[in-house]
Design brief:
It contains twelve helices and eleven strands. It is of the alpha/beta class. Among the domains are: 84 residues, Winged helix-like DNA-binding domain superfamily/Winged helix DNA-binding domain (Arc Repressor Mutant, subunit A, Orthogonal Bundle); 107 residues, D-Maltodextrin-Binding Protein, domain 2. The strands form three sheets. Strands 3, 4, 5, 6, 9, 10 and 11 form a seven-stranded mixed beta sheet that branches. A two-stranded antiparallel ribbon has the order 1-2.
């Protein structure tokens, strides 16, 4: 007689995913709709799982369904397996669509201008992967990822990223800049939130991650935000406007570095404001990026 116990067959992936959906949604019918099958078919599949494993996995009541302790364990144990299966399916889909060497990237302005160019050069040299890049504000980037127009997006600061996989790939800090002729350029004492909020600044447009960060910093200090003097669509336009004598503006320290070094602009000291922000990669799918160009690009960003 063998020294091993009776072998238990492993349920198939659709059945494991169905059980996970029952645990998440609390209903066999809802889990069936998620899988594109009827409630009867879902119930039959779950019973087959129970016969296969020799365990009671789902507790059925008139008010709904819940997984048993054994079912909950199976859901937890299979989570990584399902995640890896999703990654494989996504990679196969990429191959079928003949996009294994092409990546569609959308990014907010700071990331597009200062980080992605060298990442994409490395992607081309190291992996022979061609990528297209479109710069937009953070809200537009997220919308492009959700719609499938972009394979991956890069945004600045926080925002509505619900339902998307995310990974922080870097960050920077906003600085307040002014023309050398501006009265704020001659200040030695830092400006506080109340002083800044009382003035109409030069700004990026609504939907920009940069604008969201400094406006939220003022509101967090209890200061209402004045309507901007002008709202522009690129960092370059903001820098040029301020250098020409327009009102001061908050911009990325990376974007302003050259003008600050040359003296075309002056950094105005501030106090009491949280102006740091993260650069976040976003995509549709599991938190483990699918094998292929998307994962390759994230690996390059992580090395930078």
């Amino acid at each position: 007689m063998s020294g091993y116990g009776a072998l238990v067959a492993l349920p198939d992936l659709p059945s494991l995913r169905l059980l996970a959906d029952v645990a998440r949604l609390g209903s066999i019918g809802a889990a069936g709709r998620e899988a594109g099958i009827s409630q009867q078919s879902a119930s039959e599949r779950l019973r087959s799982m129970e016969m296969l494993t020799g365990l009671t996995l789902v507790q059925r009541t008139t008010s709904g369904s819940s997984v048993t302790p054994a079912g909950r364990l199976l859901v937890e144990w299979s989570a990584e397996l399902l995640e890896r299966a999703d990654a494989v399916e996504a990679a196969l889909r990429t191959l079928r669509e003949e996009r294994s060497r092409e990546l569609h990237v959308h990014a907010s302005m700071t990331v597009a201008e200062h980080l992605l160019p060298r990442w994409l050069v490395r992607l081309r040299l190291e992996r022979a992967i061609v990528a297209s890049l479109r710069a937009a504000n953070s809200e537009a980037v997220v919308a492009a990822v959700r719609s499938g127009e972009a394979d991956i997006g890069f945004v600045e600061g926080a925002g509505d990223l619900a339902g998307l996989a995310t990974r922080v790939v870097g960050g920077d800090e906003l600085v307040l800049i002014a023309s050398p002729a501006d009265t704020w350029a001659r200040r030695r004492r830092p400006l506080d939130a109340a002083q800044i909020g009382a003035r109409a600044l030069t700004s990026r447009e609504q939907g920009s991650g940069t604008r969201r960060v400094w406006e939220e910093a003022l509101r967090a200090s209890g200061v209402p935000v004045a309507e901007p003097n002008s709202a522009l669509t690129t960092s370059a336009a903001v820098l040029a406007t301020v250098a020409a004598g327009g009102p001061p503006a908050f911009v990325s320290g990376r974007a302003a570095a050259r003008d600050l070094e040359s003296g075309a602009l002056v950094q105005v000291p501030t106090t009491g404001l949280a102006l740091s922000r993260s650069f976040t990669a976003v995509w549709v799918g599991s938190r483990r990026p699918p094998a292929g160009p998307l994962r390759d690009l994230l690996a390059i960003a992580a090395r930078d």
